[in-house]
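lol forgot to send this yesterday, sorry. struct tokens for the thing we talked abt
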């Protein structure tokens, strides 16, 4: 059983924009929620105090120096501003203050290169302590600079402030800005998560945008629809859903012009209603007085035989083995002008049948006896049978189930069909949640 590789996950800007636009309300809620959390945090966050003093750097030129006093002083701005936050100064400030409650992380220094003045700040949650700690730091720096040999030149660090200023401050504005940035990142992460995890196809516009093909029919899902056709073995009678596909059958009759007869019905994954569409399309063609043959080519989950209340045995595998002729494997159904060829018994590698001349022989003989041949094929992501089936098909219809597969899976399906030269003419949107008035819509009803 040939397996198909999974879709490679790649980023497409147009798909990301579509997801962003599609989920705009949720994204706005996420943005607002994160922003509100940031604003609430500002109310919980305690304001603090900043003590500020001015320090001037004075350098004296030693004999033989190539610099004057001003130039030399400016050269030490960076050194002193860094020194104020180093362990020697902090440790000395703790001794002066009489406590270890002084932290280098609370010290900040700013300066302009055009002057010799440093602005030194200390942050604390008590205004008196903030002032006292800053003064201890400045005293420690003055002591350090006065110590002989501390600097290569004769440097003095002098506190020129008449009084250390203390003012209240907060990070509210910074918190709000960070919350806004976090909100944007959360929205972006949500969009990317949807793109890689749950970017489901849920509209005709989305299908047509990805496939580049017209959607022929939109089939609306009826509420309380019940259980779809079971796929387990041993089911003799199984109620199934019937769909009015007369519009689609009329379209195919118009498009065929007596030339295109073989239609390959495909889906990307299992569960999109491909078999239901195949059988009801065959019935609609039969009711239009077109003799139709439906062939079950889905060896992954053969089920058409149970829809028509037939046995799966005596089918295409028996023809492949040479045990039966074409006429012997064709089974009449209770549907008007519709015949059926089932899969037959399971074989170890059924893929070789679709690549063999005998499969082409079945199709060629069917063309001479029927107006339309409907091939119900395995999903593209389940088996690679579509590669060989496309070679004998005149056209391909792609059934897309609402909210069943991702946009990437649909794009992958289309790309795989195009790679094997399948003539994809359009799509059928199945299980639509609500009627779209821009498109034809049909309804499920149950066979009594």
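and heres what i got for the seq, position by position
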């Amino acid at each position: 059983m040939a397996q198909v590789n999974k879709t490679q996950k790649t980023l497409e800007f147009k798909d990301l924009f579509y997801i962003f636009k599609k989920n705009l309300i949720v994204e706005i809620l996420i943005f607002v929620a994160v922003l509100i959390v940031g604003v609430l945090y500002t109310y919980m966050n305690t304001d603090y105090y900043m003590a500020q003093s001015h320090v001037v750097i004075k350098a004296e030129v030693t004999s033989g120096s190539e610099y004057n006093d001003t130039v030399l002083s400016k050269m030490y701005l960076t050194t002193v501003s860094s020194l104020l936050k180093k362990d020697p100064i902090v440790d000395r400030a703790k001794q002066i203050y009489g406590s270890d409650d002084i932290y280098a992380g609370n010290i900040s220094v700013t300066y302009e290169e055009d002057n010799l003045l440093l602005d030194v700040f200390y942050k604390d949650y008590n205004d008196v302590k903030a002032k006292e700690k800053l003064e201890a730091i400045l005293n420690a720096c003055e002591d350090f600079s006065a110590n002989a040999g501390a600097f290569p030149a004769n440097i003095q660090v002098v506190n020129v402030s008449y009084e250390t200023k203390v003012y209240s401050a907060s990070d509210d504005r910074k918190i709000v800005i960070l919350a806004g940035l976090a909100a944007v990142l959360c929205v972006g992460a949500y969009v990317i998560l949807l793109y890689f995890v749950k970017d489901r196809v849920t509209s005709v516009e989305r299908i047509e945008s990805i496939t580049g093909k017209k959607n022929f029919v939109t089939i609306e899902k009826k509420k309380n629809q019940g259980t779809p056709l079971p796929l387990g073995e041993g089911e003799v009678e199984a109620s199934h859903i019937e769909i009015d596909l007369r519009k689609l059958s009329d379209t195919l009759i118009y498009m065929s012009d007596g030339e295109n007869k073989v239609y390959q019905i495909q889906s990307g994954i299992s569960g999109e209603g491909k078999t239901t569409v195949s059988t009801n399309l065959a019935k609609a063609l039969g009711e239009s007085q077109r003799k139709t043959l439906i062939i079950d080519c889905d060896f992954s989950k053969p089920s058409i035989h149970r829809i028509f209340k037939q046995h799966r045995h005596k089918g295409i595998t028996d023809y492949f083995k040479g045990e039966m002729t074409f006429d012997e494997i064709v089974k009449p159904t209770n549907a008007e002008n519709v015949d059926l060829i089932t899969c037959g018994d399971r074989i170890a590698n059924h893929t070789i049948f679709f690549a063999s001349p005998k499969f082409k022989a079945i199709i060629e003989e069917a063309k001479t006896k029927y107006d339309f041949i409907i091939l119900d094929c395995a999903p593209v992501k389940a088996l690679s049978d579509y590669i060989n089936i496309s070679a004998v098909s005149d056209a391909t219809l792609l059934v897309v189930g609402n909210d069943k597969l991702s946009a990437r899976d649909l794009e992958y399906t289309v790309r795989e069909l195009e790679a094997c030269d399948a003539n994809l003419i359009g799509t059928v949107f199945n299980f639509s949640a609500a009627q779209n008035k821009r498109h034809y819509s049909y309804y499920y009803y149950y066979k009594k």
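Confidence is low (pLDDT under 50) at residues 1-9, 224-239, 436-448. anyway ping me if u want another try
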